Automatic annotation (TrEMBL):
Presence of the UniProt keyword Transferase in the record: no
Keywords, ordered alphabetically: Receptor, Signal
Domain of life: Bacteria
Family stated for the protein in its record: Belongs to the UPF0065 (bug) family.
Keyword Signal: yes
Name the UniProt record assigns to this protein: Tripartite-type tricarboxylate transporter, receptor component TctC
Signal sequence residues: 1-22
Amino acid sequence: MKITKLLTAAFLPLFFIAPSSAQDGGYPTRPIRLIVGFSAGGATDVSARLFAKKMGDVLGQPVIVETKLGAAGTISADYVARSPADGYTLLYTTSSIHAISPHLYTDLKWDPVKDFAPIALAAKYPQVLLVNNDLPVKTLSELVALMKKNPNKYSYASAGVGGTQHMAGAILAARAHVDAVHVPYKGMSAAYPDLIAGRVQIMFDNSPSAIPFVNDRRVRALAVSSAERVSNLPDVPTIKESGFPDFDINGWSGFVAPAGTPQAIIDKLNMAVIKSSQSPEVQQWLTENGSPTNLSGTPAEFATFLKDELAFWKGAVELSGAKQQQ
């Protein structure tokens, strides 16, 4: 009798553990590929690699970042959408890939909702409104006044048609009732030399890329697009504070898997993202780059977030007048 009770007590915990292990098949049993659609060294790539390293530690298998460039990141999404739904190929997606491109490209072979299983939000990037140092303005209200006096005299740069920077500029111009010339570049690295030299005068950029230029005083920051000030730019007001009370725009990045990935695997990946985001290294990177540090929620919450973002950016694309791309 005592032996029976002892055996029952010993194996009872396994009874409760077994179903979870059976559902995810002991996942992961081999390395996981994390697909990134933007060049090495940018904020998206750097944060993806930081999360990948920490997620590998949590999951006990390497998470290997692979870059697949082209068509503003949409090629990376197409690749993952057509990958096996087994949890071994993930997409580190962004606002421009997942929420803007579906309204801008007419020939996408994937659907942002139907073809992906949301895992977790990773980071949010406020946009920083930057101007050339020689432009005679110190505040957003002064910039608006200058532009109203000189319609279409000033130009604003972006990383390309339909990107977050382009959309932020177009929305602000529309709400401020000013006219400016949009100058798209092939990435922000190509735009900064012209902004610094004064060949273009105005630009929005993601906080991770913008903060070093501001701190080095190569450009001037007038405002940030988020609802709250950025901790590493404490003296820079929000656009909301500067006379536009409903202005709250952020770029973001997050994890998705191919549609049909088992829920147990999605939940395990979500857990890995959350644990990784709580690590000191990730917390430090998020703080230094202007992102909130407590973003990761449930897969269902991320799914709701994605649908809300799709609706918001649809209106932004229409407002910007950006032409749909083939």
